[in-house]
TrEMBL record:
PROSITE patterns: ABC_TRANSPORTER_2. It comes from Roseibium algae. This is Urea ABC transporter ATP-binding protein UrtD. SUPFAM superfamilies: P-loop containing nucleoside triphosphate hydrolases (SSF52540). The keyword Cytoplasm does not apply. Residues 8-248 form the ABC transporter domain. GO terms for molecular function: ATP binding. Keywords: ATP-binding, Nucleotide-binding, Transport. NCBIfam families: urea_trans_UrtD (TIGR03411). The keyword Disulfide bond does not apply. It comes from the Bacteria. InterPro entries: AAA+_ATPase, ABC_AA/LPS_Transport, ABC_transporter-like_ATP-bd, ABC_transptr_urea_ATP-bd_UrtD, BCA_ABC_TP_C, P-loop_NTPase. CDD domains: ABC_Mj1267_LivG_branched.
Length: 248
């Protein structure tokens, strides 16, 4: 697929740490509106890949384009967030001493990027958007609950809601199901599918049951490059994937 029509385009991206290639000629294209799952063994380069996309790490070589034309390599971390690349880290970060509603309100009003404490009068449109987000993140009945009282899974959903409040064009999500109960994991897959109806999403995940339930194209990373790509059934049938990923 052409770079111009992609939401995210990586071509020949390499990063070395003290001579060790964490990313080695990594190329990948994500289409607008696509949800992609990234899998791979520990050390495959998944985190480094998220870091180069979000400007946390600068690649040694290669090209990274967002929305077809925006060269991300020349942008810093704050500008990349402002451009509409939202990143959800593994650990939930919500304002524990504020209610669910206030967390969403804060995120809606804050400029993209690091969240600032900006409470203003909330317009009707903003209230409707918060209502929509509450329903989407399955926390409609928790709106007045302090974030501190939410379960781990609910905090993850709240943070996803806060990221969505900032209206990203691309959402990067790191192991959303880690530490969740089975029921929360299943609900998170449904939540991400709902989000993918209106957003481009990249999900890094270890839990294969979870990846299977997403039912999306999978990219397998190994030693900093793409080893295989396709449906989970397709990549699972690839002997090289079985060897490196499943350790058989
Ligand atoms: P994954 O997320 O797939 O487990 P990472 O991207 O975290 O993989 O790491 C890829 C490789 O790069 C690993 O071998 C890791 O030790 C190495 N690495 C990552 N970040 C650094 C760093 N800041 N300094 C040195 N080595 C690093």
């Amino acid at each position: 697929m052409a770079r111009q029509t992609s939401i995210l385009y990586l071509d020949g991206v390499s990063v070395s740490f003290d001579g060790f290639k964490a990313l080695n000629d990594l190329s990948m294209v994500i289409e607008p509106g696509e949800m992609r799952a990234i899998i791979g063994p520990n050390g495959a380069g998944k985190t480094t890949m998220m870091d180069v996309i979000t400007g946390k790490t600068r690649p040694d070589t290669g090209e990274i384009y967002f929305n077809g034309v925006v060269d991300l390599i020349s942008e810093d971390e704050a500008s990349i967030a402002e451009l509409g690349v939202g990143r959800k880290f593994q650990k939930p970060t919500v304002f524990e001493s504020h209610t669910v509603w206030d967390n969403l309100e804060l995120a809606l009003k804050a400029p993209r990027g690091p969240l600032a404490t900006l409470f203003h009068v909330t317009s009707g449109d903003e209230r409707s958007r918060i209502e929509e987000l509450l329903t989407l993140i399955r926390l409609g009945d928790k709106r007045d609950e302090l974030a501190a009282n939410l379960s781990h899974g609910q905090k993850q959903w709240l943070e996803i809601g806060m990221l969505l409040a900032q209206d990203p064009k691309l959402l990067l999500v790191d192991e959303p199901a880690a530490g969740m109960t089975d029921a929360e994991t299943a609900e998170t897959a449904e939540l991400l599918k709902d989000i993918a109806k209106t957003h481009s999403v990249v999900v890094v995940e270890h839990d294969m049951t979870f990846v299977r339930s997403l039912d999306v194209k999978v990219t397998v990373l190994h030693e900093g490059s793409v080893l295989a790509e396709g449906s989970l059934d397709h990549v699972s049938a690839d002997e090289r994937v079985v060897e490196v990923y499943l350790g058989r």
